[in-house]
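Lecture 7 notes: from sequence to structure.

We start with a single chain of 165 residues. Read the sequence below before looking at the structure.
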Amino acid sequence: MTTRPPEVSAAEAAGLPVAGLTAHQVLTLTQCAGVSLDGSGQQVNLLITATSGGVGQYAVQLAKLGNTHVTATCGARNMDLVKSLGADEVLDYKTPDGAALKSPSGRKYDAVIQCALGIPWSAFEPNLSANGKAIDITPGPSAYVASALKKLTFFKKQLVLMTVT
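Now the structure, written as tokens:
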């Protein structure tokens, strides 16, 4: 236990464990990204959206403990921050390539951790590997419909919906 610094509000401090645990869950659960944080296992090509937010910042740092190549999205003003957290590639979401979520190195993603609101499945699908997963931690109604349709059609690429209860 430690004392909360005065420049951090009680609400901000209370949110830190939630963001960290959400990032840990979405990375390590087998039905999600399935990353081993000890560096073992096959390399995972990972995209994290809205990386400069709470979950995204933890997700980049935790992912780099595993055998991952991390591509991250954020706004132009946060690109240096996200690079300093360990992201291998950083996309400005306001540029055409960033909006298309295409890896600068041409890699297909094994998993996408969707931390941003309002990005549809259709934006992720062309950039996923054959058995890739998009894990949406902020699912809206259209995500539930898309997920159900993918399951009904036995589509190999998956849309996984995380709900915090």
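The chain is about 35% helix and 20% strand. Keep this in mind for problem set 3.
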